[in-house]
Amino acid sequence: MKTLKIRDLIKVDFAVTTEDGDSVFKTLDHHFQNGEKITLDFSEIAILTTAFLNAAIGQLYSKYTSEDISSYLKLDKISNSDLLLVKTVIQRAKEYFANKEKFEKNTGDAIYGTD
Amino acid sequence: MEFTIIKHYKFTLQKEAPYISYIPQRITSAITGYESLLRLHNDLSSAQKQEIQISFKNVVWLEANLCAILGAIIEELESRGNEVTLVDCERFHEKSDILSRNGFFKHYGVQIPTVREHKTPISYKMFKEKEAVLYNQYIQAELIDNPEFPRHSEGLGKKIKENIYELFENARTHGKCKHIHTCGQFFPTKKKLHITIVDTGDTITENVQRFLKQNLSPSECINWAMQLGNTTKEGDIPGGLGLGLIFEFINMNKGKIQIVSSNGYWELREGIVTKEDLSFSFSGTIANIEFDLSENKMYLLQQEVIDMDSIF
């Protein structure tokens, strides 16, 4: 299992912007597509925001199932308070994409009719 | 042959006198304070390619962190080709040197030497949307490494920083603005930290009404945006947590948060939410937070043990 340190990926110890989160997502996505399992190392990260986590981890749910993510991704060296924030982001991401799917289905049905 | 003699007159064009706008006597973070600043903003809303002087002649009290709002108003005026200068600054400086000490006057070309060296102000600064790294450095220097920042628990310090960054990121991504204006002030005796973040981008009203396709009032739009789980984001990156978590933390901290966007006003203070639609509108969003730095605040650590194997 390969370890990726967030601090090395984003070059700063403040994991706060959507753009930095998106760059982490793209890196994870690339490895997952190649069948590589990843440990994401949170050491030396002083501040973590939902904006970053939504883009880095929440966005994974736009493309992968919980089972896939669980199989390919592990988190390491993360404080309990930050882990709680990650859990909140994940719960929210699941709701977000479930609603999005429902919205898209309703829109599709409205335009094209139901099967 | 007739000649018509044309006399050429040399016209000396009289330069139009600058328009002077007077900042009101008292600017505080009460609703009346915001109304005063928004009225000033409204009075200048049709000014284009004019010379405008903003006068501090009448000001008796100005809550320093709110100069971020003035900065945003000036940015908007300048974007319409107006030439803006600050005047009568020395008169205000005789009553309070705070706008010299926090760098606001200096930013607009007014240099008044100050004597006191206490680092209780958090400097007024303007950041471009893509200057997140510079913002990080600013927060590090002005807040985290500031010796005047009262002693506080590690948990509280971390939470305050997270909240400030969430607000900045919210302004960047939802406001889609050119600049973000920020300023703050410590009150060591009262153990308070005030910080104001202002953007002149899309308002919460515009974003929420567009998303919900409903004509909610501006204050109701802000109220909707502050609820955990609500977001106007669409696309592959989820949202809906930032403002809601700030709301929860401020409640626990017994601090205060005020949001002004369009003519909506929303405040959370001591667990009570106040919503009001103001008489004047701001073409952007103002967020003003007051953190309580008292050590006697209990921050209940989450006792929940999170199972890493089932987190996803």
CA gyration radius of chain A, whole angstroms: 16 Å
Coarse morphology of chain B: globular
Number of helices of chain A: 5
Average pLDDT of chain A: 89
> What's the SSE pattern of chain B?
EEHEEHEHHHEHHEEHHHEE
| CATH class (first level) name of chain B | Alpha Beta
Residue stretches of chain B low in confidence (pLDDT < 50, at least 5 long) are 3-13
Please report the number of helical segments of chain B.
Answer: 10
Which ranges of chain A are low-confidence, i.e. pLDDT below 50, for 5 or more consecutive residues? Answer: none
Most extensive contact: A-B, 42 and 34 residues
What is the CATH architecture assignment of chain B? 2-Layer Sandwich
Strand order of the largest sheet of chain A: 1-3-5
Explain what this protein looks like in three dimensions.
The complex is a heterodimer of chains A (115) and B (312). The mean pLDDT of chain A is 89. Chain A is globular, with a radius of gyration of 16 Å. Chain A has one domain (2-112). Chain A is built from five helices and five strands; from the N terminus they run E-H-E-H-E-E-H-H-E-H. The longest helix of chain A has 33 residues, at 80-112. Chain A has 115 residues and is an alpha/beta fold. Chain B has 312 residues and is α/β, with parallel strands linked by helices. Chain B has one domain (19-297): Heat Shock Protein 90 (2-Layer Sandwich). Helices cover 34% and strands 25% of the residues of chain B. Chain B has ten helices and ten strands. Chain B has helices spanning 31-43, 67-79, 89-95, 98-101, 104-107, 132-144, 154-175, 204-212, 218-225, 242-253; strands at residues 19-22, 26-27, 51-55, 61-62, 83-87, 121-128, 179-187, 192-199, 256-269, 272-292. A five-stranded antiparallel beta sheet of chain B has the order 6-7-8-10-9, with helices on both faces. A three-stranded parallel beta sheet of chain B has the order 1-3-5, covered by helices on one side. Chain B has a two-stranded parallel ribbon with strand order 2-4. In chain B, helix 6 packs antiparallel against helix 7 (154-175) and helix 8 packs across helix 9. Residues 3-13 of chain B have low confidence and may be disordered. The interface between A and B is large, with 42 and 34 residues.
